[in-house]
């Protein structure tokens, strides 16, 4: 029976498990983020490669660049404590950035709600007769231009 550390995966298995394309896995390999061994023309991914892929996708999900992700992954070989410290620093920085974005999004949503309310109130009122006449004249002119264009 193979242990978890000895288990291997094909590109198709990892792509299916993590809902990514094989092309994405090859891209991460080209960028030096994954280093599967080769068995002829086939890529053979280890349990460690699988764990790296999980970290890559998690990092991308929270907005880290591939360079930042690679920096974190590369530190594993050198010093796991330094890797953890670097990851912690980058994660805290992303939290600050995402919280600021959330405040901006919340403010934009509030502005939109206010605008929708004002527009709905405006449109709920009956139009003034002069406005109705202007709207009809605009419609008639638009129809005439459309007919002249054909």
Can you describe this structure?
- This protein folds into 2 domains: about 1-65, Multidrug-efflux Transporter Regulator, Chain: A, Domain 2; about 110-150.
- The protein has 6 helices and 3 strands; from the N terminus they run E-H-H-E-E-H-H-H-H.
- The chain has helices at about 10-20, 20-30, 45-60, 65-80, 80-125, 130-150, and strands at about 10, 35-40, 40-45.
- A 3-stranded antiparallel β-sheet has the order 1-3-2.
- Helix 4 packs antiparallel against helix 5 (about 80-125).
- The chain is elongated.
- The mean pLDDT is about 90.
- GO terms for molecular function: DNA binding; DNA-binding transcription factor activity.
- Keywords: Coiled coil, DNA-binding.
Number of domains: 2
The residue fraction in helices comes out at over 70%
Strand content: 5-15%
Number of helices: 6
Strands across the major sheet, in which order? 1-3-2
Order of helices and strands: EHHEEHHHH
Low-confidence stretches: none
The beta-strand count equals: 3
Chain-averaged pLDDT: 92
Q: SS-based structural class? A: mainly alpha
- Give me the CATH architecture of the largest domain, please: Orthogonal Bundle
């Amino acid at each position: 029976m193979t242990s978890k550390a000895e288990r291997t995966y094909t590109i198709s298995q990892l792509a299916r498990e993590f809902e990514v394309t094989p092309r994405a896995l090859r891209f991460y390999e080209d960028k030096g983020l994954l280093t599967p061994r080769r068995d002829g023309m086939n890529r053979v991914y280890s349990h460690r490669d699988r764990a790296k892929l999980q970290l890559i996708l998690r990092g991308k999900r929270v907005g880290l660049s591939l360079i930042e992700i690679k920096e974190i992954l590369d530190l594993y070989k050198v010093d796991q404590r330094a890797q953890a410290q670097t990851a912690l620093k980058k994660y805290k920085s992303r939290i600050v950035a995402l919280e600021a974005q959330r405040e901006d999004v919340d403010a934009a949503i509030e502005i939109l709600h206010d605008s929708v309310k004002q527009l709905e109130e405006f449109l709920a009122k009956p139009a003034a007769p002069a406005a109705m006449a202007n709207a009809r004249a605009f419609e008639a002119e638009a129809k005439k231009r459309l007919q002249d264009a054909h």
